[in-house]
Structures are given as C-alpha cells and as structure tokens.
Amino acid sequence: MTSAVPPVDRALLTSIVKAYDVRGIVGEALTEQSVEALGAAFVDVVGAAGDRVVVGHDMRDSSPGFAEAFARGATARGADVVNIGLCSTDESYYASGTLDAPAAMFTASHNPAAYNGIKFSRAGAQGISLDTGLADIRDRAGDFLEQGISAIAETGSVQRVDVLAEYAAYLRGLVDLSGIRPLKIVVDAGNGMGGLTVPAVLGTAAGLPALPLEIVPLYFELDGTFPNHEANPLEPANLVDLQAAVVEHGADLGLAFDGDADRCFVVDERGAAVTPSAVAAIVAVREIARVAALGETDVNVIHNLITSRFVPETIEAAGATPVRTRVGHSLIKDRMAETGAVFGGEHSAHYYFRDFWGADNGMLAAMHVLAEFGAQHAPLSELADRFTPYALSGEINSVVDDVPSAYTRVVEAFTGRGEFDELDGLTVFGLTAEDQPFWWFNVRPSNTEPLLRLNVEGADAATMAVVRDEVLALIRVDPRGA
C-alpha cells in the first residue's frame, strides 16, 4: 500500500460493506489496503482462481488506483484480471455477461466526490448481496487484513481490454433507432460516465452509423469532482440545467444520467420530468409486445412496490403478469432470474432487461423511450401524460431521531383506515368507498441512516397531498413537543 493513511481493521471494513455493494469515504475505511483485501476475498468467494475477473472503473480520481489495488489482490489469489478501464456500470455488466465472468465496478454512483465504492457481479452479471455472498467477501477480506494476503502458487495476470464499441453495437442490436423521426435531445451526463457512453451508443464515436438524433451535450467532460452539479438526477435540483437547456434549444426531450450512467431520467419538451414509473410502463409495453410477437405466452414483468399503480395495470392490460417485489438492486436481479421476467422497473429509474443478463441498463431504457416516441409525432408530454394518470409524491426522506416511534405513530393512525402490507417497510392501501379516490403510501426505514422514506400515490393530486401531509406530520413530530 502506497497511501499514508491509518491501516484498516475488520470493524472499519464492515462499515463500508452495505446491503448490495461497498460504499464509503475515500481514505477512511475505503483505502487501497482494504480494496486489495476485497479483491483477494472476491476471488476466493466466487471461485475465480484460474478464471477471469472483469474490473472496470468510473472517472473519480481514486478509481484507477483502486482498480489496480483490487487487481493486485485478485491476481494474488489466482484470477486473471480483464481490466476494461473507464466504463459505465452497465458496460461492466456487458463485459461480465458476454465473458461469463465475475466483475467488480469501482464507482460510488450518484454519491458526492469524496465517496467511492464497488459494485460486484457474479459471472453473467448476476447480483451479489449480503445474503448471497457479500457478507462472505467482507469476512474473508477481514481475515486478509488481519493475516495478510497469501499468494497462491499460480498467480494471475492482467489484460487490458476495451469493450465500449462492442457494448454500443450490442445495444444498437436490441433497439433499432435507425428508422425513427429526427429528434433533438439534450443529454446531461453530469460529468459522469454518460459522457463516454452516450457518444458511443447514440452517436458515432464507436464507429457506428449515425442515428437521426441531434444531441446537445451538457457536462460531458469526465470529472469526478462534479463541478457543475451532483450526478444524482433523482434530486430535482440536479435536473434544473437540463430542463432549462431543453426549453432553450427547443429540443424534443432531455436525458439525464447519474454518475456511473446506469440510471437515466427523462424530461419532456416543456422541461417537465417524466416519472420513472411512466418510463417503466412504456418500456414494459414494448418488451411485452416484442416477446409476444415471438410466441411467448407466459410473460412476467417485475415492478417494485413503490412504482405507480399504473405500472401493474399496464402490464396486465398488455397481457403479461406483474410481479411485485421489494426495493433493491441485487434482489430484483435475483427475481429476474427466478421468474424469467422480460423486464423490470424501479421507482429509482433502474430498469432491468432479460436480454441484458437480467441486469439494469439506463441507456437501454432511454433507447426504448426514443424508439417509442420517435415512431409517432405527438410531443413527449402527451405520451408521458398517457402513462401518468395518477399523482405520485416522489420519495420524501425525513431525518428522524427515533425511527421506531415514528413508525409506530403511522401504524396507529392508519389502523382501521387502510389495508397493511409489510413486504418492504409498511405499505398502507386506503380502505375507501367505491366512489372515493384511491390512495396508498409506503414508509421504509433506511438500513444505514436515521431516515424514514415516504412514497405516496393518489388518484389525483389533491388526494395524494392530503395523505402525504398527514403522514409527514406523523413522521416529523418533535419529541420535545416544540
């Protein structure tokens, strides 16, 4: 290890291993020492000695050094590292899928510049969570931190491979955009990896033919300090520049990618955000129709429990079966594999595709929206309105000192007024008369912070607002009575 930072112990390591990935502040628990131990542990746990392991990284300043440290640990334990260099997370999934090799992607996604992390995949881009191997990786890495990493007799090698052109061609083969009407789109890459992948997939940077797209770029320069805004389009403040640019340039729509470019958000021609639930419904209809045309009759589509009620309604109307799941990246990947689902959508703008090894791919979702929108002549706002008949609050986070007490207040207030469901946190479906508008809400405690996350939907904006305000008042009660 070259950096002059205090050594990492087992307790510190545990603090950065989350439910579905590794995430932490660079130079604290997340150091080249801990990353090297995690690389060695990953090889042992997934049984990659003598086989290939894919390693990729985003544009954060610490990412190249971490990728090298991980490769040192992985090769010491016998893996041959395929270093794909700068890439988006879904590009690393492509490499894992097409090479049928486990992968490690260095990114902290949408987190601020001080953070970094690792997203792990088993061979074939399959997810890893605490319950399916990440806890074993953590514990094995802790052993290596305490005892040192012992190199096996047949250590591995490192090979540098660029898969961007192949990745771009693969996506073009899944969604054909060559015949759509000409569109002007503004793309905000947020100084993240979309600045690399958008020109390759939607442009000609990877040597592919030009598409009928005029792209107006915003913040395509790769810069892990995020000088313009955080690369987290889920926060409305980070969409402001895109919304203004769409209107200024008279564009047909806008796209915003997060830091590692695995999530994509859509803005219509007026600068209004299109909900991820609407995108999920649009893509679901397209994927259901595609496989039905190939003769599939038993089609499953996954949606997590926080997507709009319109998503399962749309899936059923299209002739498929909606599969409702908890929130969670690796969990949904597992459910994609278990059910053979053709598509899966989350409220957080993660979109999963069977034809992409069940992994999520924001670029592919954007291409489906472009294909659907580009095949007709109405504005995007009209298309989006058809897929957004109800009112959603979006996710509202509240810092709460006593999360269990707040949770209990909500349960007591709505007992007898709604049907309770505890698939993930607490979902309450309103017990309303037939002539009254429907509503539901979900409250989920954070696993890592003193937060309660609230999502509300109602048949109309007024109904949603009443329920939202009541639940927020219960959550945010001041225990001091002030």
From TrEMBL:
Q: Does the keyword Plastid apply?
A: no
InterPro entries attached to this UniProt entry: A-D-PHexomutase_a/b/a-I, A-D-PHexomutase_a/b/a-I/II/III, A-D-PHexomutase_a/b/a-II, A-D-PHexomutase_a/b/a-III, A-D-PHexomutase_C, A-D-PHexomutase_C_sf, Alpha-D-phosphohexomutase_SF
Q: Which cofactor does it need?
A: Mg(2+)
Under the heading SUPFAM superfamilies, the entry gives:
Phosphoglucomutase, C-terminal domain, Phosphoglucomutase, first 3 domains
| Entry keywords, A to Z | Isomerase, Magnesium, Metal-binding, Phosphoprotein
Residues forming the Alpha-D-phosphohexomutase alpha/beta/alpha domain are 16-129, 166-271, 281-389
Taxonomically, the superkingdom here is Bacteria
Domain (Alpha-D-phosphohexomutase C-terminal): residue spans on this chain: 395-472
Give one GO term, molecular function aspect. phosphomannomutase activity
What does the entry give for GO biological process? carbohydrate metabolic process
State which Enzyme Commission number(s) the record gives: 5.4.2.8
Q: Which PANTHER family match?
A: PHOSPHOMANNOMUTASE
The family annotation for this protein states: Belongs to the phosphohexose mutase family.
Protein name per Swiss-Prot or TrEMBL: Phosphomannomutase
